[in-house]
Structures are given as structure tokens and as C-alpha cells.
Design a protein that fits this description.
Elements: E1 3-8, E2 19-23, E3 28-32, E4 34-35, H1 38-45, E5 57-58, H2 64-78
Antiparallel strand pairs: 1-2, 2-3, 4-5
């Protein structure tokens, strides 16, 4: 695994906020976010089950440019 840092929440103060990386070896976007609360998880469960190996995380909309950058990086990797 070779994670490439893409970006962190621009409003972070202590560096422990939502973060995005790209794993080019696995062609994956890796996201650290806030844990979803019970209400949000219940809402997500309306769409289907959440397997034990998965989690619902939240990141602020202001991170959309960072997610776009991560998506672009993965698409470039897939084209190699």
C-alpha cells in the first residue's frame, strides 16, 4: 500500500480532521471522516445494510475540491 496524501479539511485547526488519500496500488480513495451518529446510520440503512467491514463517515462539503482531486488521481491511475 502506498498512500498519497491529497488533502485535509481546510478548516482544521489541530490536524485531526477529515482527510483524503489515494492508494494508487489498490485504485482506491481513502477517507478519514467523522463517525456517523445513530440517526444518520439509521437513515443510511433505509437504502440497505451496512456490512461489518464498512462504515458510514461524514466529511464537510467544503472538501469537495479535495475529493475531485482524489477522483482525478484515481482516474489517471486507471488509465496507465
Amino acid at each position: 500500500m502506498a498512500l498519497t496524501f491529497v488533502g485535509i479539511d481546510p478548516n482544521t485547526g489541530d490536524g485531526e480532521c477529515p482527510t483524503v488519500w489515494v492508494d494508487k496500488d489498490a485504485d482506491e480513495i481513502v477517507i478519514q471522516g467523522w463517525k456517523a451518529g445513530e440517526t444518520m446510520q439509521a437513515e443510511c440503512l433505509r437504502t440497505g445494510a451496512i456490512p461489518e467491514t464498512e462504515a458510514v463517515v461524514r466529511i464537510p462539503a467544503r472538501m469537495a475540491p479535495i475529493l475531485r482531486e482524489a477522483c482525478d488521481a484515481i482516474e489517471r491511475t486507471e488509465l496507465r
